[in-house]
Design a protein that fits this description.
Elements: E1 8-9, H1 12-15, E2 20-21, E3 29-30, E4 36-43, E5 56-58, E6 63-66, E7 73-78, E8 83-89, E9 94-100, E10 105-110, E11 115-120, E12 125-131, E13 139-142, E14 147-153, E15 161-168, E16 173-181, E17 185-190, E18 196-201, E19 206-211, E20 216-222, E21 229-235, E22 240-245, E23 249-254, E24 260-265, E25 270-276, E26 281-286, E27 289-297, E28 300-308, E29 315-319, E30 324-329, E31 338-344, H2 364-376, E32 382-387, E33 396-400, H3 412-418, E34 427-428, E35 433-441, E36 447-456, H4 463-479
Parallel strand pairs: 3-28
Antiparallel strand pairs: 1-4, 2-28, 4-31, 5-6, 6-7, 7-8, 9-10, 10-11, 11-12, 13-14, 14-15, 15-16, 17-18, 18-19, 19-20, 21-22, 22-23, 23-24, 25-26, 26-27, 27-28, 29-30, 30-31, 32-33, 32-36, 34-35, 35-36
Amino acid sequence: MFKHFFVVFIASAIASGSLFAQKSDPGIVQSQGVPLRLVQTLAIPPTVKGNFDHFGIDLKRNRLFATPEDSKAVLVFDLAEGKLLQRIEGIERPHAVLYREDIDRLYVTDGGDGSIKVYDASNYNLVERIALLKDADSIGFDPSKKYLYVDNGGGDVHQSYSMFSTVDTSSNKKIEDMKIDGDPLEAMTLDTYRPRIYINDKAKNEVVVVDRWKNMIVAKWPINLAKGNVTMALDEQRQRLFVGCRDGKLVVLDSNTGKELQTLSITPGVDDTIYDPRSKRLYAIGGGSVDVFDQIGMDKYVLRGSVSTGSKARTARLVPELNRLYVAVPQEGAKSARVDIFEPANTASGEVRGPEPQEPVNAPFAEELVLNMLSSHPYLRKMGLHVIPPGGSQMILIANGNATRLGIHTSAGDFAAVKDGKTYGPYIADGGFYNMKMPMFDAKGRRIGILVMEIPGTSASDEQDAAHQAEAIRKELSEKSPGLEQLFQSR
């Protein structure tokens, strides 16, 4: 019978002592205040050795999934009880974990046998094995289409290129593969409102940009300011891509253009980077430390401190809903492996969006139009179409790059912005974009709703230029819109 290993509670006084060290970097503002408090430690059996890869989380059951790469299993922790609950066996080399709450399924990349293993999350029975190539590793998830993107292949299968595979998690079928030169590919991150995926190609020291709706490479951005790009995080609001490099640099790029803007000094050996948009906090994990930065404005970062963990610790998972950062600490000498649980402290409050009214909507023609526009105008950050559905009385969002927002009620601010029939588009300084809103028309010139979009400051010289671009895009979209009723039909 599997033994339960119970939580060891760590006094918060430890977190305010020598656990924290301040780095000195003339290019970064430093601030005082403990950034993380160690509040718990989850014990792991001494038989678990070697490095850990990336965590998964099941908030419905309050369970954490850890991936000791050499243990041929995923560890399941009950966070409410503070104990190791179960091992999911039969995984040659676990790397990344995704939990889909809506269908209660768990997806694990297995680099050893080259697959995604799908489990029933109620009992952890294996449901499906989706064949990929060996070294199936990093993942990205599109919540709109429910697609899982996976790095796999490369040197482990004697290829000079890696495979970027798309898997439909609703049908558990691989849809397509795309070759990307380089071995290995590392972390990736997705823009949720436009079709971009950013992928680290460590072999070429560059970021590969993929249009996931067209399944094609649209750009390659060299990393010149550092070496060994392996981790990645994204600040969508400010269009900043954070690329963690093993040589002790975190490179900040403009995610519209790929321009390198600055570097932040971090502990060498990074293997995870996390950005929390609510608190505007950035974490770099690796080399036995968690380096913590606060974002205080566009391209301004405050170094909060470097939090010491075990010398081999390099991966972590932030769960904002629980206000906890989980850090995997591998076995070292006589000390068994563990999971350190930190509470983020002294964070900015940030804006918390409450529940919004949301209606069911099915407008496939409109959605296809908007997705195609976002692909054909890749500099656009967002686009959304608001209309009153036929027979309805409430204006709602019917087409958008992020399908999780479909059906949201049109805001009073959107109505106010277009009440005079003109194009509205102020520059948003804390984001660096023009927030465009305008009446929308069909191909016959009939007013059908409101069109909203965001144009980056890198693509427009001023508000007038942004308005001209937005109106040209509206004209293009209008010419493809036969009428209100057709927006809700299939093409």
